[in-house]
Amino acid sequence: MKRLMVMLLLLVASAVAQAHKPSDSYLSFKSEPGHVSGQWDIALRDLEYAIGLDADGNGEITWGELSARHPDVASYALARLQVTAGDAACPLQATDHLVDRHSDGAYAVIRFSGECAAAGTLKIRYSLFFELDPTHRGLARIESGSVTQTAVFGPERAEQTFNLAAPSVFEQIVTYVREGVWHIWIGFDHVLFLLALLLPAVLRREAQTWLPVSRFAPAFWEVLKVVTAFTVAHSITLSLAALELISLPSRLVESVIAASVVFAALNNLYPLVSERRWAMAFAFGLIHGFGFASVLTDLGLPGDALLSSLFGFNVGVELGQLAIVAVFLPLAFALRATRFYSRVVFAGGSVIVAILAAIWLAERALDIKLLS
Predict the structure, then answer these.
(1) Contact criterion met (CB below 8 Å) for 161 and 292
(2) What is the rounded CA–CA span in Å between residue 351 and residue 344?
(3) Which of 27, 77, 193, 259 is 20 to 30 A from 53 (CA-CA)?
(4) CA distances (Å), 188 to each of 12, 80, 106, 185, in order?
């Protein structure tokens, strides 16, 4: 049991150390009879790692350095993207190179096109950076007439086939449930905030100290209140932001999310909120919802199935959350009365999370890089 908890702590420490936005690229396709065109946004930091762009080694990639490598960038990327219409391959050619800026930095933009046979299906095989970073994901948007579909490519789902006819509502929901689960699992900031709130659930505050609870029921109900409050809060703002009814600057949102992790961890060590932690979960959950919305915006919501896709993504986030709680709570309850839990897991884990999340906050708020 202790070994499992140690493994969880190591995963938490690793997650915080890598708490930047995961490596993503953004791929859009427009499919027409006999022709496909699109745009591919790839992070400069990822391309620098893969093929080297910083010619003078000064840590900055200029337009001159990038433009000198345009053929290499196109060759490297398009060799890792294969498109097939029906049974016929669609050779892709780069038509233009641009630079765009996303919330996490500068991206090289490759515009491309290719001749395709008229077909009812489009098969895409994506393998960019998989040999270098197995956590990399390609967020794709495929438009065909009035139909818009989305997909996430990863090593385990590198090849996907799309029916260019309108998918069913059920298929849309299932797709977004899957992406919701995945994005809560790689959303280290959200997971760490939740875990920081759950660490005291198997303890009670008495005479200025933390003592183990005697029964499972109080711990369960505490967890239920915290998770429910967090869920309701981030569902509200996720929906409002995804529907473009409210918008906040990405840098502000990401900085406040990092600050919420710091506060939740420090609150375990120096309690300002020892009761009604569900209220803290709700307050900060409102901000976390905007963070989820940024992911959903990048993924894209199809206009013809807006509400069903939003519903599916929300359900997926909650299922991913419940899976984390289902693993954590029984372990924490079993170890609650041990010095290992009180000293290593609760106190030590809170310190590690607070320190590393504070570094993360400085990076986001000041736009600097402290951790590689």
Answers:
(1) no
(2) 10
(3) 27
(4) 8, 28, 22, 7
Q: Which domain holds residue 64?
A: 24-167
The pair of structure tokens assigned to 144 is: 């065909």
Tell me whether residue 173 is in a domain.
no
Co-location of 272 and 231 in the same domain: yes
Query: What's the rounded Cα separation, in Å, for the pair 233 and 245?
Result: 16
User: Do 120 and 265 fall into the same domain?
Assistant: no
Q: What is the Cα–Cα distance from 313 to 292, expressed in whole angstroms?
A: 10
Q: Are 364 and 23 in contact (CB under 8 A)?
A: no
Number of domains in the chain: 2
**Predicted confidence pLDDT, tens digits, the chain (372 residues):** 555 454 544 444 444 444 445 688 999 999 988 899 999 999 999 999 999 999 998 888 999 999 999 999 999 999 999 999 988 899 999 999 999 987 677 899 999 999 988 778 899 999 999 999 888 889 888 888 877 787 888 898 899 998 887 667 777 788 788 878 877 777 778 889 989 999 999 999 887 889 999 999 999 999 999 999 999 999 899 888 878 788 888 888 989 999 999 999 999 999 887 778 899 999 999 999 888 877 766 666 665 566 777 888 888 888 998 998 999 999 999 999 999 999 999 999 999 999 989 998 998 888 777 765
294 within 8 A of 244, measured Cβ to Cβ = no
Name, in order, each residue with C-beta under 8 angstroms of 165's C-beta and a sequence gap of 6 or more.
120, 147
Same domain, 13 and 28: no
129 and 193 inside one domain: no
**Token code pair at residue 258:** 């990092």
Are residues 264 and 237 located together in one domain of the fold?
A: yes
Same domain? For 208 and 278 the reply is yes
